[in-house]
Amino acid sequence: ALKSEMVEVRSAGQAANCVHHVFALGGTDEDQRIHFSAECLDPDENRFSLRAPMQ
């Protein structure tokens, strides 16, 4: 089981799976600010990392 936490708290975002990685995109934080960020989960490393923003 993965126990890694995301870099940024987000809800209402989207997720996609590509080549054994999971990408978390967009969403809002606890103050309802919109995220333009993207994170990638590498299951081999068991950690999330930030990617280039979508904006």
From TrEMBL:
Q: Which InterPro entries match?
A: Kelch_1 (IPR006652)
In its UniProt entry, what is this protein called? Answer: Uncharacterized protein
Q: Which organism is it from?
A: Symbiodinium pilosum
